[in-house]
Design a protein that fits this description.
Elements: H1 26-34, H2 47-63, E1 71-76, H3 78-89, E2 95-99, H4 102-110, E3 120-123, E4 140-144, E5 146-147, E6 152-153, E7 166-170, E8 187-190, E9 202-207, H5 209-220, H6 231-239, H7 249-265, H8 267-288, E10 292-294, E11 306-311, H9 317-326, E12 342-346, H10 353-369
Parallel strand pairs: 2-3, 2-4, 4-7, 7-8
Antiparallel strand pairs: 1-9, 5-6, 8-9, 10-11, 11-12
Bound molecules: pyridoxal-5'-phosphate.
The site of pyridoxal-5'-phosphate has 13 residues, from helix 3.
């Protein structure tokens, strides 16, 4: 099918609207070249790289207004590795996992381990969400802050449950894009290739004193823990501004620049206001559209950083995404396993609100000109 050629005034200045990996700003790439010249290709056990790791930890502490006693940990392997690390070193006996999309489901699968009791899984239909409920014997309550596969965001509130139970939040696509009170979580973990506009391969976590105590207690027990997935190992290495094995230095450089940029602009409240502005434009457009509507029906659950828009049967969303792609507007396809007639658009902090408004114009223009079923 031939694509619809968009007029220049409808083309965003940057066509990257993917939910991860996501847009990396030009200034970050310049910093990668200038600052990277003395860092890329050098030892991660020497001062230049250790200072870079320290800077990312310090800037994350500032960004999240880190409460007294909390620490920033990091390790290799991204959020997926963190799930396995948590199964080995954070869950004592049993977790409760809220599953309202792919990513929550993947943590629930990782928490289904022979040395643990089967997790208490609270599942909800895609586009809606479940809530945590205190259950005796559960020592980790886990849910995503933002379910990237569906565009559902959940509130972050510490669970009032068994003494010592931890609240563990997957903030992979939310971190730095949704304002949050980190004191309401014991572990707020993420990978930096989504809203933080970096590249993949690392995980970071803001952890509370209670979580540190848990990590140390399980590490001292007789449970077998592979070294690569040991949170105690990550704790010790993070305090030394390093990782167990070689980290991706480019990922660290891109992240550090992004954190500096967000902090210079006003930090988390600025970032949250910016993603709210961008996402609101899309939701209002979809609410008013005759052929589209927000996939997440409860406005309170709609994500400010990942917007999912359903189309009615007369419109072929895949054809729209394909036509946009031919114009350099990429990655508006829905999450592959969701299988809906949908567009999914990231409204991360790096994305200009004006570019989101142009994208809306581009979608309207495309719909008018694509042949309808
Ligand atoms: C992308 C994503 C992940 C997976 O991150 P990786 O670094 O690729 O392992 C986990 N959770 C959420 C919410 C995500 O959006």
């Amino acid at each position: 099918m031939p694509h619809v050629e968009l007029p220049a005034e409808l083309l965003p200045t940057d066509g990257r609207f993917g939910c991860g990996p996501s847009k990396v700003r030009g200034a970050q790439l310049e910093a990668l070249v200038t600052r990277g010249a003395s860092i890329l290709g050098t030892s991660h056990r020497q001062a230049p790289v250790k200072n870079l790791v320290a800077s990312t930890r310090e800037r994350l502490s500032q960004l999240f207004r880190l409460p007294e006693g909390y620490e920033i940990l990091l390790g290799n392997g991204g959020s997926t590795a963190f799930w396995d690390a948590a199964a080995f070193g954070l869950i004592e006996n049993r977790s409760q996992n809220l599953v309202f999309g792919e990513f929550g489901g993947k943590f629930a699968a990782a928490a289904t381990a022979p040395w643990l009791q089967a997790p208490d899984v609270r599942k909800a239909e895609p586009g809606t969400r479940s809530s945590a409920e205190a259950v005796a014997g559960v020592d980790v309550y886990a849910w995503p802050h933002n379910e990237t596969s569906t565009g559902v965001a959940a509130p972050i509130r510490r669970m009032d449950a068994d003494a010592g139970a931890l609240t563990v939040i997957d903030a992979t696509s939310a971190a730095g894009g949704i304002d949050v009170d980190v004191s309401q979580a014991d572990v707020y973990y993420f990978a930096p290739q989504k809203n933080l506009g970096s590249d993949g391969g690392l995980w970071y976590a803001a952890v509370s004193p209670a979580a540190i105590e848990r990590i140390e207690r399980i590490a001292a027990s007789d449970r077998y823990i592979p070294e690569f997935l040991s949170l105690k190992n990550a704790l010790d290495n993070s305090r030394l501004q390093q990782t167990l094995n070689t980290p991706a230095l480019a990922t660290l450089l891109l992240l550090d620049d992004q954190l500096g940029w967000i902090l210079d602009n006003g930090g988390l409240s600025w970032a949250g206001a910016r993603t709210a502005e961008s996402s609101r434009a899309l939701y209002e457009w979809a609410d008013a559209s005759a052929v589209a509507k927000p996939f997440v029906s409860d406005p309170a659950d709609r994500s400010p950083v990942v917007v999912t828009i359903d189309f009615d049967d007369r419109i072929d969303a895949a054809a729209i995404a394909k036509s946009l792609r031919a114009n350099g507007i990429v990655d508006t396809e829905p999450y592959r396993k969701l299988g809906r007639n949908q567009l999914r658009v990231a409204t991360f902090v790096s994305i200009e609100p004006e570019d989101v408004r142009r994208l809306i114009g581009a979608i309207d223009y495309t719909i008018e000109r694509l042949p309808q079923a």
